[in-house]
Specification:
Length: 188
């Protein structure tokens, strides 16, 4: 496995996710947005990034642009002492809360056993904390986390991305040690 701290053209899709599991969801979304729709296909994870991009008809300039985007994602800073919502994620959370009649609710952030990597994230509306909650605030939204999950979730950045293959909340978690080949579930 490559020990580099950057994504390179000769890395396989699976190697990218296993080398950078804490950023796997955002990396997978960037690849999908660029046209690599099979990043979660087990048949394609063995391909190198370059082979996958060229196989999808990308020009060399497009390949370089995606590589630069992936490495920019790796360089994004994370505050390891809190839970952070990006402005885009906060905007979408407020919109969804309004649509669901849950204006004023906070965000319940958790993880649960599931997926092919061990754990999946759970996001939901929450009116008030439980006695066992730790409360954070980001972008004016209260974030409720059960005390026992802090070791796995502290430092997460919750973002919202739109793409041709779907949209949704994506989490970057500095505590993740492994990720499934599709970048949607993780292990600690």
């Amino acid at each position: 496995m490559t020990t580099t701290q950057t994504v390179t053209f000769d890395m396989t899709i699976a190697e990218i996710f296993s080398t950078f599991p804490h950023k796997s969801q955002k990396l997978a979304q960037a690849m999908t947005n660029a046209g690599l729709h099979c990043t979660s296909c087990s048949a394609a994870t063995w391909e190198t990034l370059e082979a996958g991009m060229l196989g999808h008809g990308m020009k060399q300039e497009e390949c370089q642009k995606l590589l630069n985007k992936l490495n920019a994602i790796l360089e994004e800073e994370q505050d390891l002492e809190t839970i952070t919502l990006t402005p885009r994620a906060a905007e979408k959370f407020r919109l969804f809360a309004k649509e669901d009649g849950k204006e004023g609710c906070g965000l319940r952030f958790a993880d649960t056993a599931g997926g092919c990597g061990g754990f999946q994230y759970v996001l939901d509306f929450e009116e008030k904390p439980t006695d066992n909650d730790v409360i954070f605030e980001s972008e004016g939204i209260k974030i409720f986390i059960t005390q026992g999950m802090l070791g796995r979730l502290l430092g997460c950045v919750i973002d919202y991305v739109d793409g041709l293959q779907g949209a949704g909340f994506k989490i970057s978690n500095p505590n993740v040690k492994s990720s499934c080949s599709c970048g949607t579930s993780q292990g600690y």
